[in-house]
Structures are given as C-alpha cells and as structure tokens.
Specification:
This protein is mainly alpha-helical. The chain has helices at residues 6-23, 27-44, 53-75, 82-89, 98-120, 131-155, 158-165, 169-173, 178-193, 198-220, 224-236, 241-255.
Amino acid sequence: MVANTIDEVIDILGDIIESSRNDESTLGYFACLYQKVTISVKDKLHTNYFDDDARMEQLDVLFANRYLLAYADYKQGKPITKSWDMAFQASSNNSLIVLQHLLLGMNAHINLDLGIAAAEISDASSINTLHSDFNKINAVLASLVEEVQEDLSKIWPTLVKILKFANKVDDFFINFSMSIARDGAWKFANELVAQKELKSREHYMALRDDKIAALSKSITVHKIVVRLIFFIVRIGERGKPSDKIKALERVVKNRTK
C-alpha cells in the first residue's frame, strides 16, 4: 500500500474504491473524493501553479501514504492513529450521511496527516518556503469539496433543504472550516519541525492525534434534534454504498474535467 509516485497513489486509491464497491463499504466515499483531488494536483504540476513541482509531488505522496498505510493497517487489525480509527470505525455506522463520512476522512487527513507530511519534507529553516504551495494544495482540495457538496445536494436534495430549514448548516460545518483546518495544520507543522528530538516529535503528534480524534465526535455526535435531522437526510440518500460511490464518482469526474 506504499506509493512512490503520484500515479501510484491514484492507482492504489482506485483499488480501494473498487474493493469498497464490491464490499458495499462506506470506506470508498473518502477514497473516491481523494483520488480526484490527487488527480487535480497532478494536473496542476508543470503548469506554473506550484512554486516547486518536485517538492509538491513529494509532499503529495508522503501525505497520501499516511492515509494508504492507515487503511491497510486498519484492514489488518494493526494499530493506527486515533483520528483514522475514528473515521474507519464509523464506516459501520449506517446512520451517518455521506457528507459525514467525507468529513471524518478529511478531519484525520488534513488536521493530522498534512502537518506531519509537511514537517517530513522540511526543517525549521526551510519550512517557510513551503507555505505558499501548502496553501495551494489546500485550495485545490477546498474548491473540489465545496463543489462536490453542492452537487451532492442535487443528487440527494434533502441534504441542504432540511439542514437549511432547521438552521443547522452553520452549526454542522463550523467545526470543520477548510481555512481553519489549513491554518491549524500549518501551525502544527511548524511546531513539529521545531522539535529536534524524535521523542519530542512523537509526543507532539500524539497530542495532536488526541485533539483531532476528539474533533471527530463533533461530526458524528449531536443532540437529539440534529440526529433526527440527519436521520431524515439519511433516508433521502437512497441506495447501497456501491450506488453512492458511483454517484460520487460521477460528481467528482464532472468537476475535474
């Protein structure tokens, strides 16, 4: 499950999507979105979008491998970060809507993994040169996520209609603003490269993991009124996980043309 190039990342994500479709697993939702994000990043390489294409591909691969390895270890029953464990364990929760599954994956990957990956290709003296491209890769993800959210509301119209009717849209997404996630990940990356000893880095990563795992609960655990709203939205999301994966593939394919 370890990728060495951005093309290998795309291929392995395709395997996860296919496996999830065959197994009727909701784990395919995030993999589907993430594959298209990776394709978007690849398409922007060598177009003068990023400041340093070689470094960006290295970051993209390191970043993706944290998810790919977490997925493989989870499947094999090996220990993984608390943040990814929360996201993967939620795959068996039939009450969650598609958007919640996507947010759980993004929470673990952006809020924890991105900062670690950025620190792995930097040091305290060079990390500032990464800041511009760090923001750009987040911009690619944010734009695609926002557009996919809009299109999901067209496929399952109860999603936005009911949330707006109940005035819960802002409450639901306030804890996962893409800009807040980006800034938090960047601050974490800087704190991490400042730690010279391995034990100190591991301590910072463990503390961050605890914090992000706790944030996962804000995506899945709500008061009874909100749970009822999501239940109604969930009813409107007809079909098996494989049907929803196909819908996500169509949505993101259209957005990445």
